[in-house]
Amino acid sequence: MATAPVTGNLTTAYTTAATGISSSFAPAVAPGGTPAVTSNPIPFNINIDTFRGSFVGTIIVQRSVDNGTSWGAVIFPAATAQNSTAFSGTSFGLSVQLTETQSGALYRVIVSAYTSGTLYYFFGQ
């Protein structure tokens, strides 16, 4: 069963006051394996669009496995041509399909440096 998609836009840099940060997305995982890890992951999509909003800045997609207490940068597969953890510039897009094996994992995007424009994002299954 898929979870509800998370969409939105960001127009400021990340701060501890929760600006420049997306809502969290928790991908659904199929039953199987141990209670915490499944052997039957369900793919989900991450789409970042900077073209539509003329975004200028740097973003980082993050993952948490402890209910959002700590976050680490997602390293994208080389097949995305974005083998990186941070994306910056004036016109870049990211569209990737991932799978998650950790039940309860969360994903979000933060704007680590902001100059101008609007960043649009989508997480969904």
Describe the structure.
The chain has about 120 residues and is mainly beta. The chain has a single domain, classed as Jelly Rolls, CATH 2.60.120. Helix content is about 0%, strand content about 40%. It contains no helices and eight strands. The protein has strands at about 5-10, 45-50, 55-65, 70-75, 85-90, 95-100, 105-115, 120-125. The chain has a four-stranded antiparallel sheet, with no helix packed on it. Strands 3, 4, 5 and 7 form a four-stranded antiparallel sheet that branches. The protein is globular.
Keywords:
125 residues, mainly beta, Jelly Rolls, four-stranded antiparallel beta sheet, 8 strands, 41% strand
Summarize the structure.
The protein has strands at residues 6-10, 43-49, 56-64, 72-73, 86-89, 93-99, 106-116, 119-124. It is mainly β and 125 residues long.
How are strands sequenced across the largest beta sheet?
A: 1-8-2-6
Instruction: Note the total helix count.
Output: 0
What class do helices, strands and sheet pairing give? Answer: mainly beta
**Count the strands?**
8
Rg result? 14 Å
| Overall CATH class | Mainly Beta
The major sheet is characterized as: 4 strands, antiparallel
Indicate the CATH architecture: Sandwich
Distance N to C terminus: 9 Å
- Give the % helix: under 10%
Shape: globular
CATH topology, what is it called? Jelly Rolls
Name the average pLDDT: 73
Order of helices and strands: EEEEEEEE
- β-strand percent reads 35-45%
Total number of domains = 1
Uncertain parts: 79-83
Walk me through the topology.
Elements: E1 6-10, E2 43-49, E3 56-64, E4 72-73, E5 86-89, E6 93-99, E7 106-116, E8 119-124
Antiparallel strand pairs: 1-8, 2-6, 2-8, 3-4, 3-5, 3-7
